[in-house]
Specification:
Elements lengths: L9 H17 L33 E7 L2 E7 L15 E8 L7 E9 L6 E5 L8 E8 L2 E2 L3 E4 L11 E6 L10 H6 L6 E4 L25 H12 L2 H9 L1 E4 L21 H18 L17 E5 L3 E5 L15 E2 L15 H13 L4 E5 L17 E2 L7 H14 L4 E5 L5 E7 L9 E7 L14 H6 L6 E5 L2 E8 L3 E9 L9 E10 L6 E2 L1
Parallel strand pairs: 1-11, 9-10, 10-11, 13-15, 15-17, 17-19
Antiparallel strand pairs: 1-2, 2-5, 3-4, 3-6, 6-7, 6-8, 9-21, 12-13, 14-16, 18-19, 18-20, 21-22, 22-23, 23-24
The structure holds fe (iii) ion and calcium ion (CA).
Length: 529
């Protein structure tokens, strides 16, 4: 499918945008007279906009596939690293979606408003498409034309699906390496991509890294916009977005390292932090292919949601940052302090937890996927009798973890598989009914995916992990190189392939499969393939 994407490649889009720029500057006024169908129908007026450069510098994306539609995304940003470079007026953007890669067989077209209040981002919720098939789409503003993206609708809800393929990724620190993994990901045969957070990092530039952040630590809305623009300018990331619909959720670095609900890592007051969180959440919405149901409301944004793929799989996508109780014993790795045993401790908040448990209890899907952020399986990094757990993960919230594990044990949802990001390493784990009891049943499987770049090149086995493997017998695999995780599901079996690049501090490294694991339907727990 690579060749269908050639118009999104960096070389052709540079040429194309130069042509577009000339044509656009000579063709002003073409925007008037369009029917408005976007978020902001009150913007009847569009300014006479002149772009100094390609307004589609951040590429295109699509996401959250339904059987009859997807979200199409772009953001107009002719000067992406300096606030976008757009005038203060709203601008009408035309879009079209076709059944062929050359955009000849148009299935639908329309227009949407790119409003300054949302950074001139565009979110189109296309409806009325056919289930389980590929589409191609693009945007036009004046005479500027975006690259062509490819997307795919979900299968019909009652479809008896024989196969589903996707990949999941997380943690793409711009400074610590090149997004080579995404170029390889764009070549995979997949139905969609799941992103588990740390899409950006909030920090200031650091010395001696292959690439550089564009500002000190980000606080304001403009800071966050410019940081997303830096990341989204990456050609490999643009390729991966243009190749598949994405299902995204966030972790901490989209706002601030290890934040919990309204508690920051940095020394900010609660109100200052909530203002910062509002900026961060808004910029996240502006740069992701999300539905209106995720429109930011002040410092809140509803991100948790469910996606279904025929009778084969249901994805519950979680947000374990916005509603969690604060890390009970401070950050870092340590023994649980008494406060950790608080039965009120929560990772999801009461409402999301009820929602998830209801999903799992009522689901008719064969595979029930929980796409979330931090590791669930216990990792005791304390040698011998000392038990040392990471305070940011589920293990430091035992009441919340046990409510989830009890649900798996008691209600037995079909084939639960947890997907996790956050820790820049690949792990495969049995989920035990009770991690305090090594003899307790295996009630599910967890696959933790490594980073795209965060942490630099990494290594295969880490000495500190190797040393503790014997104390954590439910852990079946570890690797800390960079890449993504590819999954193929059939009614009989789940297969996970850990795809790793040789290095990220050098460009254009090849990709390989480091290990593969399978889960047989009806038999919880992963087995080496
Ligand atoms: Fe990370
Ligand atoms: Ca120990």
């Amino acid at each position: 499918m690579k060749k269908t994407l050639c118009s999104t490649g960096s070389h052709s889009s540079i040429t194309q945008s130069a042509v577009n720029r000339r044509r656009f500057l000579s063709g002003m006024g073409a925007l008037s007279g369009l029917a408005l169908t976007g978020h902001f129908p009150h913007y009847a007026q569009t300014g006479a906009t002149k772009f100094a450069a390609d307004p589609f510098s951040l590429g295109v994306a699509s996401g959250d596939p339904l059987p009859d539609g997807v979200v199409l995304w772009t953001r107009l940003a002719p000067d992406p690293l300096n606030g976008g470079g757009m005038p203060s007026q709203a601008v009408t953007v035309k879009w079209e979606i076709a059944t062929d890669e050359r955009m000849k067989e148009i299935a639908q077209r329309g227009s949407a408003v790119a409003a300054p209040e949302f950074g001139h981002s565009v979110h189109v919720e296309v409806k009325g498409l056919k289930p389980g098939r590929w589409y191609w789409y693009r945007f036009m503003v004046g005479s500027a034309v975006s690259p062509i993206g490819r997307t795919r609708t979900a299968p019909a809800l009652n479809a008896r699906l024989e196969r589903l393929g996707f990949a999941f990724a997380s943690c793409q620190h711009y400074e610590t390496g090149y997004f080579t993994a995404y170029k390889h990901l764009a070549d995979e045969q997949l139905d969609f991509v799941v992103h588990l957070g740390d899409y950006i990092y909030e920090g200031a530039p650091a010395a001696n890294r292959p690439r550089k952040h564009n500002s000190p630590e980000i606080i304001s809305l403009e800071d966050y916009r410019n940081r997303y623009a830096l990341y989204k300018s990456d050609p490999d990331l643009k390729l991966a977005h243009a190749a598949f619909p994405w299902i995204v959720t966030w972790d901490d670095h989209e706002v601030d390292n290890n934040y919990a609900n309204d508690v920051p890592e940095d020394k900010q007051t609660r109100s200052a932090f909530l203002e910062r969180r509002a900026h961060a959440y808004q910029a996240y919405y502006e740069h992701m292919p999300l539905r209106r149901s995720s429109l930011p409301r002040g410092s809140e944004l509803r991100l948790y949601r469910r996606l279904r793929f025929g009778d084969l799989a249901e994805f519950s996508v979680l947000d374990t940052r916005q509603y969690r109780t604060d890390q009970p014993c401070g950050d870092g790795n340590k023994s649980l302090c008494p406060e950790a045993l608080n039965p009120q401790a929560t990772m999801m908040g009461a409402e999301q937890e009820r929602w998830l448990f209801n999903n799992l209890d009522r689901s008719k899907a064969l595979w029930n996927v929980i796409a979330q952020q931090v590791m669930m399986a216990r990792w005791d990094s304390g040698p011998g009798l000392e038990q040392r757990l990471s305070m940011d993960k589920w293990g430091a919230y035992p009441a919340a973890l046990n409510r989830f594990l009890n649900l798996l044990r008691e209600r037995k949802p079909s084939n639960p598989v947890v997907l996790t990001g956050d820790i820049h390493s690949n792990w495969v784990a049995d989920l035990k009914a009770d991690f305090n009891n090594p003899d307790s049943a295996v009630v599910g499987t967890e696959f933790v995916g490594t980073s795209i770049t965060s942490g630099g090149d990494g290594m295969d086995m880490r000495p500190d992990v190797e040393q503790q493997m014997g104390e954590n017998p439910h852990i079946k695999f570890f690797n800390s190189q960079r890449g993504y995780v590819r999954c193929h599901i059939t009614p009989k079996q789940w297969q996970t392939d850990f795809r790793i690049v040789a290095a990220v501090t050098k460009r254009d490294e090849p990709i390989n499969t480091r290990a593969s694991f399978v889960v047989e339907s009806g038999k919880p727990g992963p087995v080496s393939a």
